[in-house]
Specification:
The complex is a heterodimer of chains A (114) and B (116). Chain A has 114 residues and is mainly beta. Chain A is built from no helices and eleven strands. In chain A, the strands form two sheets. In chain A, strands 2, 4, 5, 9, 10 and 11 form a six-stranded mixed sheet that branches. Chain A is globular. With 116 residues, chain B is an all-beta fold. Chain B has strands spanning 5-7, 10-13, 19-24, 31-38, 42-50, 53-56, 65-71, 74-79, 88-95, 106-107, 111-115. The model of chain B has no long low-confidence stretch (mean pLDDT 93). Classes of the chains: A mainly beta (114), B mainly beta (116). Chains A and B meet through strand 5, strand 9 and strand 10 of A and strand 5 of B.
Chain lengths: 114, 116
């Protein structure tokens, strides 16, 4: 299946610092998504991107859809303790016979040191 | 408004036993998805339904896995017989109809399955 390479795998940052993570693929995607998963819960959609070059913000979060359509990044500004969790990128692909699927990266585990 | 409801939250069973996971999607949602999450493979789509009809089950690992959606408010994922390698967190998600709405999948809290 399609592979999404997400980096870094984990990061420890000081509260107040900015965070950047990215996702790359050898395949072209028409939609890029960023989800966050808190411990013991399911992922929650943060940002959806639909056009190459698109830059979208959601509060302190900003994500961009790469021009090549093969990558995306997520930035978090002025991190706070509740930003802790695992962040997943996901790309939407056509898997044939009228079916679309979301392919998820392995996630970036974020730890924030107060 | 209630989110996606899954039961049980935790299941511990012995190899060879039948396991049934249950999901109630958000009312009014047309799509229902079953995912499996492991450390090694991450989050994988197993199967999804549109208006109770299975659309794509290419992610179902093998014949031991089956899923049903008898009505718009209930779905089951069954593993028979279960094996230790089936140990994972299983998520159910649902979304509304519509090209962009499809992407906003609302996940349940998951069922953590341990097969001994």
């Amino acid at each position: 299946g399609q592979q999404l390479n997400q980096s870094p795998q984990s990061m420890f940052i000081q509260e107040g610092e900015d965070v950047s993570m990215n996702c790359t693929s050898s395949s072209i995607f028409n939609t890029w998504l960023w989800y966050k998963q808190d411990p013991g819960e399911g992922p929650v959609l943060l940002i959806a991107l639909y056009k190459a070059g698109e830059l979208t913000s959601n509060g302190r979060l900003t994500a961009q859809f790469g021009i090549t359509r093969k990558d995306s990044f997520l930035n978090i500004s002025a991190s706070i303790p509740s930003d802790v969790g695992i962040y997943f990128c996901a790309g939407r692909i056509y898997s044939g016979a009228g079916s679309y699927q979301l392919t998820f990266g392995k996630g970036t585990k974020l730890s924030v040191i107060p | 408004d209630a989110g996606v409801i899954q039961s049980p939250r935790h299941e511990v069973t012995e190899m060879g036993q039948e396991v049934t996971l249950r999901c109630k999607p958000i009312s009014g949602h047309d799509y229902l998805f079953w995912y499996r999450q492991t450390m090694m493979r991450g989050l994988e789509l197993l199967i999804y339904f549109n208006n109770n009809v299975p659309i794509d089950d290419s992610g179902m690992p093998e014949d031991r896995f089956s899923a049903k959606m008898p009505n718009a408010s209930f779905s089951t994922l069954k593993i028979q017989p279960s094996e230790p390698r089936d140990s994972a967190v299983y998520f159910c998600a649902s979304s509304r109809r519509g090209d962009r709405a499809y992407n906003e999948q609302f996940f349940g809290p998951g069922t953590r399955l341990t097969v001994l």
